[in-house]
Amino acid sequence: MDLAYIPSPSTGVIHLGPIPLRGYAFCIIIGVFVAVWLGNRRWVARGGKPGTVADIAVWAVPFGLVGGRLYHVITDYQLYFGEGENWVDAFKIWEGGLGIWGAIALGAVGAWIGCRRRGIPLPAWADALAPGIALAQAIGRWGNWFNQELYGRPTDLPWGLEISEGVNRVAGTYHPTFLYESLWCVGVALLVIWADRRFTLGHGRAFALYVAAYCVGRSWIEYMRVDEAHHVLGLRLNVWTAIGVFLLAVTYLVLSSKFRPGREAVVEPDRSGGSEPDAAKASGVSSGTSTKAGPAQATGEHKAGVTTTAGGTSTAEKQTRAESEDVHEGGADTPSGSTGTQNT
Questions:
Q1: DSSP 8-state symbol, 152
Q2: What is the SS3 assignment for 70?
């Protein structure tokens, strides 16, 4: 008999009348709210506007959920399309099964659409959201605890996870890989926040750091799991995915630091409608346009038959000077009462 262990819940759903409250979905929802809340604080600190992170998340979250489910169904197709399985179960997302790789990939597409609509750079938005995503994963992993899934090898350690008898599982005490990954993601979030403050990360490097750090932890945690999975050259498919994504993230970090050092000066352009011409109008000066004279000045000038331009010399005055010069150059004086000199 184990002296200590982590118990699993007897059920993953609580019914409030006809409404089922599923622990897995509840964890995902809380994680999304935490990510948006923290991302908004970081975005405003970078000079962005409140609410922008939430507006873009409206695009990113649905895309991410679809991508996460697609990755899971594709990589574990035998659970839904194998002999004796019901393909309709592929749509039962509340029963668990979201691949973080697909969620981030397709979620980025949704975020790109949202950023394009707001006219802001996707890398800057991703940097602001990076630690929040890690915390969302930390919270979301507890959904696996509610479903009694994705645990590791058998263990007699005091923090072993007790699993009850059920479909595709054997009662026993196993490594709580959901807890390992949850704690690792909290550490990743703290690492990104620290590094962002210490090195002033920009142009997507905070997000790349989150991806690289997560992949390191996911590799050894994935190696401990005993749930059914495809293997390539003796390693689980998700281990190879973590290695490949890690290399891509590190490559981006190096190249971005070399070609785009520093941080974005402006993350969200001002779209309030204000502009330099508006300011010029307010001060009574407009570049390239004439200034209207006041009443007193206009009266004095019209008495002389002159309208003053922005340059200080009227068109009528210029024309009068030119005619006078033509007369003098011709060497003739215009007699009183004549109509002027005709050039032939």
A1: B
A2: helix
**Distance between CA atoms of residues 164 and 168, nearest Å:** 11
Q: Is the pLDDT of residue 340 over 60?
A: no
Q: How far, in Å, CA of 139 to CA of 129, rounded?
A: 15
Name the DSSP class of 9: P
Residue type, 63: F
Which 3 state secondary structure label does DSSP give 20?
A: strand
DSSP readout, 83-108? TT--GGGGG-GGG----HHHHHHHHH
Q: What type of residue is 311?
A: G
Phi, psi of 131 (to 5 degrees): -65, -30
Please state, in angstroms and rounded to a whole number, the distance separating the CA atoms of residues 3 and 17.
37
Mean pLDDT of 142-165: 91
Q: What is the spatial distance between Cα 203 and Cα 218, in angstroms, rounded to a whole number?
A: 25
Look at residues 130, 161, 146 and name the one whose alpha carbon lies nearest to residue 53. 130
Q: What is the DSSP letter of 267?
A: S
How far out from the chain centre does Cα 184 lie? 22
Instruction: Report the alpha-carbon distance of residue 46 to residue 63 in Å, rounded.
Output: 25
Whether residue 270 contacts residue 48, with contact meaning beta carbons closer than 8 Å, is answered with: no
Nearest-angstrom CA–CA distance, 274 and 288: 19
SS3 51: coil
Residue 6 main-chain phi, psi, to 5 deg: -95, 115
The DSSP string of 13-58 is EEEETTEEEEHHHHHHHHHHHHHHHHHHHHHHHTT--TTHHHHHHH
pLDDT tens digit string along 174-228?
999 999 999 999 999 999 999 999 999 999 999 999 999 999 999 999 989 988 7
